[in-house]
Amino acid sequence: MSHTQTDHCIELLRQAAVCRADTSLQTYKWTADDDVPQFDAHSPVKHSCVDWDALKETVKPRIVSNDEMKRLVKYGGNVHDQADVVL
Question: pTM of the prediction?
Fold first, then answer.
């Protein structure tokens, strides 16, 4: 896996954590062996998960195919300048 792919994956994880953070309550419980409450991983708090099928259908029209990616041509200017990339 290249650095670019790794950076892309890490950026997607960062965005997910920042933009779609789970704000459900996290509960703690006291135990006989600890002086501070411990995280309760078996809490009955309900979490909302993404409907992946619906999400995929929503973004399907925006997917750029591999063939389209291969046709991208950079001309002049800075490689990071979006105005320099055409399809």
Answer: 0.38
